[in-house]
Amino acid sequence: MLNLSKNAIEKIEKLDKLTCLRELNLSFNCIAKIEHLEALTSLQVLNVSGNKIETIPVWLARKLKALRVFKIARNRIQTVGYLLVSLYIMFFCDSP
After folding, report:
1. C-beta separation of 47 from 27 below 8 A
2. Contact indicator for 92, 80 with CB cutoff of 8 Å
3. Looking at domain 1-96, which CATH architecture does it have?
4. Please, what is the Cα angle at 19 between 70 and 80, to 5 degrees?
5. What is the largest CA-CA distance in the chain?
């Protein structure tokens, strides 16, 4: 578990070596784009709630096949596509 919440992070970077990471908390930062997480193939829980994210990347479910819990509340999401069907739990509340 890596908790990077509330750190004023603007960009996701330098996490690609953490290929065995299972839980990542990036909540309540200043992140506008979900990126540079493709190598985290063991990731099961991703929390990006409380950021400035507008879109969910198409590659997310395709690359992060172990992902089961995706928390994305309190962001700026406009639309959600077909890509999240493999998730057990998705927290999407409070996204305007």
Report:
1. yes
2. yes
3. Alpha-Beta Horseshoe (3.80)
4. 25
5. 33
Per-residue pLDDT tens over the stretch 44-90: 999 999 999 998 888 888 899 999 888 988 999 876 655 555 555 55
pTM for the full predicted model: 0.86
Give the Cα separation of 4 and 20 in Å (integer). Answer: 17
Using DSSP, state whether 62 is helix, strand or coil: helix
Residue 17: other Cβ atoms inside 10 A? 9
Give the three-class secondary structure for 25: strand
User: Do 51 and 31 touch, CB atoms closer than 8 A?
Assistant: yes
Q: 7 CB contacts (<8 Å, ≥6 apart)?
A: 29
Tokens of 3: 């908790």
Distance of alpha carbon 7 from alpha carbon 44, whole angstroms: 22
